[in-house]
Specification:
This protein is mainly α. The chain is about 60% helix and about 0% strand. The chain has a domain of about 100 residues.
Length: about 150
């Protein structure tokens, strides 16, 4: 499913399918596009990518949204498993480097105004009663059989 196929969806349906709202998706595409334009080594060399940047962001979001394997996502888009992995990891790295899509850290979440509740559970060990083995009788039987 390419981006051109889901452009007509309503806002709620788009978010249910992709996992983010359309303005956030558009911002992701803008960040990846800007990064690719700034860090392009040779603009006229190499083969053109099969997927547009909007489709590459969509591949990444679909991979994370549906927890499918790279093989399965790649078959859906006509890519190899390796190429799908490269698209997802590169797009993720670009978005993380932009620092616009970071989640708040542990200190910020537990910083202020959050009440935490601690539950203490007593899980002490208790020995299991089992019959004692008599090693002497076992050894004597073995010795009797040996001439």
């Amino acid at each position: 499913m390419y981006y051109k196929d889901i452009q007509h969806l309503k806002e709620g349906q788009f978010q249910r399918l992709v996992g983010v709202k359309r303005p956030v998706y558009d911002q992701m595409v803008a960040v990846v596009s800007a990064h690719r334009e700034c860090h392009r080594k040779h603009p006229s060399r190499g083969r053109a990518t099969r997927l547009s940047i909007a489709d590459q962001v969509l591949v990444m979001l679909m991979y994370y949204r549906e927890y499918r394997t790279f093989f399965h996502v790649g078959v859906s888009y006509g890519l190899s498993e390796t190429q799908c992995w490269r698209i997802v990891t590169n797009t993720e790295a670009i978005l993380l480097a932009s620092e616009l899509f970071h989640l708040p850290g542990k200190k910020k979440l537990t910083g202020g105004g959050v009440l935490s509740e601690v539950v203490i559970v007593d899980v002490s060990e208790s020995p299991i009663e089992r019959p004692k083995k008599n090693n002497v009788s076992i050894i004597q039987v073995k010795r009797k059989d040996i001439p």
